[in-house]
Amino acid sequence: MFEQTALPHLNAAYNLARWLTRNEDDAKDIVQESYLRAFRLYDSYRGGDSKAWLLAVVRNTFLTWRSRTYRSVETSLSDEVERSAESDAATALDRLVDEVQVEALRNCIEQLPDEFREVLVMRELEEMSYQQIVGTTNLPLGTVMSRLSRARKRLAQCVNGRAAGARR
Amino acid sequence: MNCASAHEWMEQFLDQELDAARSALLEEHLVNCRMCSEILAQHRRLQSDIRTQAPYHSAPAGLDRAVRDALRQTAASQSTAGAAWRRWQWAAIAASVLLAASLGWNVTLLLTRTADRDTLAQEVLASHIRSLIGTHLLDVPSSDQHTVKPWFNGKLDFSPEVKDLAPQGFPLLGGRIEYLAGRPVAALVYGRRQHVINLFVWPSGAGDGESSLTRNGYNVIHWSDPHMTYWAVSDIPSQELEDFKLQLAK
């Protein structure tokens, strides 16, 4: 049954959509559309990993949505975050610094290019295996591994850069 | 084994995707190479930061309903309304039945595979799994240790220590009574991102050592102090479960 296969992955579907779109409303739309699409595609589902299958539909729905409506918000977003990260850190209460770190991490992930962000979210937040990520993205295993590695490298640079900025 | 291969394998190692032979080679190299072990530590820190600090966006309230409604409309337009409705009534319980069935299958495998050892660990694990598939995770749902601890009074012949570890990333969710090792025991329930940790506590005459094991993706660790014996079980990575244990002991 479609419902048995797909509905248990609602949180995973939303988490991926939310990280990809970076906002709640678009993520909700994408999840709804993905489930309808998946329902129509269900006849062609041949068993196997249902989470990887459903997330593949979510990812494709996102790619279609992005090609329709892509908005370039990255520069304005990052400027804003840079400013708030610095002014918060200046007040320098420990708790605030922690919040800035968490916020910096979130923003650094959001600033990763889509193709890096998606594999990172699948691996670290969805705790998917390489094979599951291959199943979802339809990318070769080597590409998944190298994108994941580059995502981590960029993320580390971004986070360390923020930390250095906050200490100044 | 040189540093170049070590670097190449490190992330696969952390992702638990490196085969056993290469893992052994890498571990041997790490013992002797400070630079590589420092790099591995950096990778590990980043991974743990992402997993503990980056938000997991769970589906907002109402999305489940909205998706079901949208699907129901589509289904209704494809078949007769009556048939679709019957399917949907059934679908309402389908998710939980599927989960129960797959977990039940794992438990069956587990019991046959390790029939004659680790019986208590199995009991602990089975209890953990039961708590997740049934409706009986919490008798006392509360994140307040001062609510949970008194709740056990009069229900158990001992008083377990109850700590909220929310600041350490393991929020207390509540507690319940379980029957394990032939006696009623305290089960304290903690959260970790999307995961649940069951901590079982009961008095033991003397310290009975420590152990840990992994079965079917679940990690179980066991330790004791002079008064109590502890079993923690979850599907979080074993190093996080060890961290949970350390935080409890603090």
Task: Give a structural overview.
- The complex is a heterodimer of chains A (168) and B (250).
- Chain A is mainly alpha-helical and 168 residues long.
- Helix content of chain A is 82%, strand content 0%.
- Chain A has helices at 2-6, 10-21, 24-41, 50-69, 74-91, 94-111, 114-125, 130-137, 141-167.
- The longest helix of chain A has 27 residues, at 141-167.
- Chain A starts with a helix and ends with a helix.
- In chain A, 38% of the residues are buried.
- By secondary structure, chain B is α+β, with helices and mostly antiparallel strands.
- Chain B has 3 domains: 3-51, no CATH class; 73-113; 118-249, MucB/RseB, C-terminal domain (Phosphorylase Kinase, domain 1, 2-Layer Sandwich).
- Chain B has 8 helices and 7 strands.
- In chain B, helix 4 (63-78) crosses helix 5.
- The longest helix of chain B has 33 residues, at 81-113.
- The two termini of chain B are 39 Å apart.
- The A-B interface holds A 1-5, 7-8, 10-11, 13-15, 18-19, 24, 27-28, 31-32, 35-36, 39-40, 101-102, 105-106, 109, 120, 123-125, 129-130, 145, 148-149, 152, 155-156, 159 and B 11-12, 15, 17, 42-43, 46-47, 49-51, 53-60, 63-64, 66-68, 70-71, 74-75, 87-88, 90-91, 94-95, 97-99, 194.
Protein topology:
The complex is a heterodimer of chains A (168) and B (250).
Chain A lengths: L1 H5 L3 H12 L2 H18 L8 H20 L4 H18 L2 H18 L2 H12 L4 H8 L3 H27 L1
Chain B lengths: L2 H12 L5 H13 L1 H20 L9 H16 L2 H33 L5 H15 L6 E2 L3 H7 L20 E9 L2 E10 L2 E9 L7 E5 L2 E7 L3 E7 L3 H12 L1
Antiparallel strand pairs in B: 1-2, 2-3, 3-4, 4-7, 5-6, 6-7
Number of strands of chain A: 0
Number of strands of chain B: 7
Q: How does the helix and strand content of chain A classify structurally? A: mainly alpha
Number of helices of chain A: 9
Number of domains of chain A: 2
Query: DSSP helix count of chain B?
Result: 8
- The pLDDT mean of chain B sits at 82
Distance between the termini of chain A: 57 Å
Q: Provide the helix percentage of chain A.
A: over 70%
As an assembly, this protein is heterodimer
The mean pLDDT of chain A is: 83
**Alpha-beta classification of chain B:** alpha+beta
CATH superfamily of the largest domain in chain B: MucB/RseB, C-terminal domain
Could you name the CATH class of the largest domain in chain B? Answer: Alpha Beta
**Mind summarizing the main beta sheet of chain B?**
7 strands, antiparallel
